[in-house]
Amino acid sequence: MELHEMDMNLLVVFNRLLAERSVSRTAESLGLTQSSISNSLAKLRRLFDDDLFLRTPRGMEPTPFAEKLGESLPYAMGMIHSALNQQISFDPMTSTRAFTIGMTDIGEMYFLPRLMDELAKAAPGVTVTTVINTAANLKDEMEMGHVDLAIGLLPQLKAGFFQRRLFRQRYACMFRKGHRLDKRRINLEEFTGAEHVVVVAAGTGHGEVDRVLERSGIQRKIRLTVQHYIAVGPILSSTEMIATVPERFAQRFAGPFGLSHVAHPALLPEIAINLFWHAKFHREAANQWLRSLLFELFSG
Predict the structure, then answer these.
(1) What's the pTM?
(2) 119, 178, 199, 295: which one has the fewest Cβ atoms less than 10 Å from its Cβ?
(3) What are 94-128's pLDDT values in tens digits?
(4) Cα 85 vs. chain centroid, distance in angstroms?
(5) CA distance 239 to 242
(6) Which residue has the higher pLDDT, 288 or 82?
(7) What is the C-alpha separation between 89 and 285, in angstroms, rounded?
(8) pLDDT tens readout for residues 180-196
């Protein structure tokens, strides 16, 4: 198929259908009627000779062909959007821009103090709101511009997104000061013999640690499971439990909670903490400025 054979408006409809999985919601988001969206879908089905979307109890599910098309289309449309919209200058000292950044609870504790201190000097009128990275619709929210950037271990953000490495880190084993394991290094026998608090952190990629430990046959005595890392510090400081945590979390929060940490005795993969943004906003001046600031503050 040649480009001159394609009505680009149909691709806009397809892109929104892929995100919304609903004719009515697609119509509402594009400011069109439902019949208009249905007619566009019918044209797309004829053009591609594929059903594209099938009605199910969960909504309109894309066919394998539609999923394949959806891997590259958001990126291509984002680049077209950037080319058509000329870059507008951004002056951080006078701007009152409100940014929204996706991050985990660890991210809020690690990134925000230093970021907000720098913004107070470099961009005093700029405000920041955070949203949790594990939100099911993070990908769509970033595509629609409701979330400007996301930081973390986010394997679900692939097609249509740019990413830049901030840093890599290992995992550490953490416990209260004075714990029987509070020494320079511990072995696997000592690790498995202790009681553990485990953080689920769903949707962040940290769950791979649990899978690696299981595949290695390392059985932990899990006494407590929590949803967020923010709970770990107070729990460890007043119990005999230990936890597997990202190294920079351990470095930043050992002092305030009276904790110690050592290199993890299990062979665990390093994790990459990346900065993500949607291709649609790759050339937006404000987005570029905040990306550069975050990289300057936290890379390495």
Answers:
(1) 0.68
(2) 178
(3) 999 999 999 988 889 889 999 999 999 999 999 99
(4) 26
(5) 8
(6) 288
(7) 6
(8) 999 999 999 999 999 99
What is the spatial distance between Cα 261 and Cα 250, in angstroms, rounded to a whole number? 6
Q: Token pair for residue 6?
A: 């394609």
DSSP letters, the chain, are --GGGS-HHHHHHHHHHHHH--HHHHHHHHT--HHHHHHHHHHHHHHHTS--EEEETTEEEEPHHHHHHHHHHHHHHHHHHHHHSPPPP--TTT---EEEEEE-HHHHHHHHHHHHHHHHHH-TT-EEEEEETT-TTHHHHHHTTSS-EEEE--TT--TTEEEEEEEEE-EEEEEETT-TT-SS---HHHHHHSEEEEE--TTSSTHHHHHHHHHTT---EEEEEES-GGGHHHHHHTSS-BEEEEHHHHHHHHHHHTEEEEE-SS----EEEEEEEEGGGTT-HHHHHHHHHHHHHH--
Other CB atoms within 10 Å distance of the CB of residue 100: 17
Reported confidence tier of residue 236, pLDDT bands at 50, 70, 90: very high
Amino acid of residue 33: T
Q: Are 237 and 197 in contact (CB under 8 A)?
A: no
Instruction: Please name every residue paired with 244 in a beta bridge, in sequence order, or none if there are none.
Output: 173
Instruction: Count CA within 13 A, CB hemisphere, residue 14.
Output: 28
Q: What are phi and psi of 219, to 5 degrees?
A: -100, 125
Residue 120 CB partners (closer than 8 Å, separation 6+)? none
Q: Rounded to an integer, what distance in angstroms lies between the CA atom of residue 128 and that of residue 148? A: 10
Instruction: Report the distance separating Cα 189 and Cα 192, nearest Å.
Output: 5
Phi first, then psi: what are they for 111, rounded to 5°? -90, -40
Encoding tokens for residue 141? Answer: 């929210």
Those residues with Cβ within 8 angstroms of residue 36's Cβ, 6 or more apart along the chain or in another chain: 27
